[in-house]
User: Fold this.
Amino acid sequence: MPQSPTKPFSDVLSGERQAIPPVWMMRQAGRYLPEYREVRAKAGGFLDLCFNPELAAEVTLQPIRRFGFDAAIIFSDILVIPYALGRSVRFEVGEGPRLEPLDDPAKVGTLATQADFGKLAPVFEALSIVRGALGAEIALIGFCGAPWTVATYMVAGHGTPDQARARMMAYRHPEAFAKIIDVLVDNSIEYLLAQLAAGADVLQIFDTWAGVLPPAEFARWSVEPTRRIIEGVRAKVPDAKIIGFPRGAGAQLPSYVEATGVNAVSIDWTAEPAFIRERVQSRVAVQGNLDPLVLITGGTALDRAVDNVMATFAQGRFIFNLGHGIQPETPIAHVEQMLRRVRG
Ligand code: CP3
Assistant:
């Protein structure tokens, strides 16, 4: 087997600790960067930017050029899958995503089972442009949303504070809800495989709303669909490297890791250090988990928080990241401060 061209990031996912952990940030291409805001303004809408291969590639590369991160994540969104399934998906400035709600069994009956991946051709093209432009030592991350999280937006038609409508639908109409999940599982497998074929080195599955589910529902709607996606991807690409991000999973992280087969788990800032080291990092690599709010704060609070994350996790297999996406108001100088502190 030829050695993976994308060290040190991929090496951590293969189980090799790095003396200086690889670093990237969730949402690293985004509104905190003036060069992003400039491209975003000329692209038109958010989806127009996602579906313009040259511009999507450009904003993917911006944080790599500026900060020298160890991984680039393709600029796209988890809601491109409902879009490719023929659902209406819009992004309202300042309001977030708007979809046609899929909140009863009759509507679910009209849901397409096969996405039109031709609509996502620009994403695959952007991946191949980025892979061609990146140095061999920098990993390119492809991604999708976990079925549960994508379903919370599809059911409610927008973001919700507690995902109540999806949770209620899963209790009231479990068969119809399972159909949404099944469609998302099948199409996410195909989507992730196409991203690997287009140049992605690593995949991340974002389950932003995993933490609102009671344990039995977490197992059924978050863990099991994620397990099926990973099994489906590895049926075609046995050594596919996959990071899971079941945000808020807390005490259920060990069972998530065990059941899904992820190579790494991304943890939020509430994770309990000793628990994660003993029960999670002992099995897979850990990614995280600086609080995005301390990155806004900066100063000695930021130094202390970075040191704390490093002291907690850097003795094992570790990728330095935030516990969730970087916030638009974060000063660039604080990102630079964080990087100096991590890399020494
Ligand atoms: O990380 C990266 O830099 C890659 C790009 C990326 C985006 N969205 C770009 C984006 C990734 C990996 C995502 C994932 C995503 N999208 C998630 C899971 C991760 C998470 O942050 O929880 C979710 C839940 C979504 C859905 C979504 N997209 C929402 C709720 C919103 C609105 C909120 C917001 O931040 O504006 C989006 C829009 C979105 N996706 C933006 C970006 C850069 C902002 C749009 C803009 O520039 O106007």
Q: What stands out?
A: The CA atoms of residues 233 and 246 lie 18 Å apart.
